Amino acid sequence: MSSNTVVENTLGVVENEICVSIVADQDVVAARQKGRAMALELGFSASDSTLLATAISELARNIVSYAGRGEIVLRSNQNSGRPGVTVVARDHGPGIPSIEQALRDGYSTSGSLGLGLPGVRRLVDDFEISSEVGRGTTVTVRKWKG
Amino acid sequence: MEVPILKQGEILIATVQAALTDSDLLQLRRSLVEKVAKARARAIIIDLTAMDVMDSFASRTMREVAHMIRLRGAETVIVGIQPDVAFAMVQLGLTMGGVTTALDLEEGLEYLHRKFRTIL
Prior knowledge:
The complex is a heterodimer of chains A (146) and B (120). Chain A is 35% helix and 36% strand. Chain A has 146 residues and is an alpha+beta fold. Chain A has a single domain (2-144), classed as Histidine kinase-like ATPase, C-terminal domain (Heat Shock Protein 90, 2-Layer Sandwich), CATH 3.30.565.10. In chain A, a hairpin with a 3-residue loop joins strand 5 (126-132) and strand 6 (136-144). Chain A is globular and about 40 Å long. Chain B has 120 residues and is α/β, with parallel strands linked by helices. A 5-stranded mixed beta sheet of chain B has the order 1-2-3-4-5, sandwiched between helices. In chain B, 40% of the residues are buried.
């Protein structure tokens, strides 16, 4: 399930926004495929598009395994003529008690390898995370056209 | 998306046709571990050419397949990981941890034929 909207922001730059709701593992694949398509449309190289798709895959899976449900918002934007894709991964799950710990390589609470967030950070240009225990987690990443 | 598994002599070949979900990956793992004994195969080749992304789950599942197949007395060769996918895996910090890999199906088959010939 996804919605597609075109937003005219204050700078008059047309942005495309796609929201993919994440509830099951096939949504993980859908989200990364839509993200790749958006990146390719903006002129990203195949390699950068794969890096972005991989990051989306990790973020979407975290939603499924830790929160059960959530959403991935994909937004295409322009920064002084340079195209980029912003990915917002949002859930209302249990939240992360220690972000510092979660960003350390080798940390995980779900029995996975724990390479999730530090790895995702290496795949993208900008990385932001906010999380509140009991309220949920939002991870925002951005990749610019190389 | 079921992954077809073909038998060629003593080798089972699983060719991924499109992006796989986590449950597809687990299904593939189950089928391979079951079929390797039924087919009395000595090796399996998993062709990942069509895999769009190898994230932490996919990589871990492939490593697990290789270890399980090893415990079943056969060998695994992973082939076809695309350059961009390999690049992303390395950036993500993923390794295939001791699993044999080859460029493509042809190289994978050649590797196994050479190896079996040496053993025999």
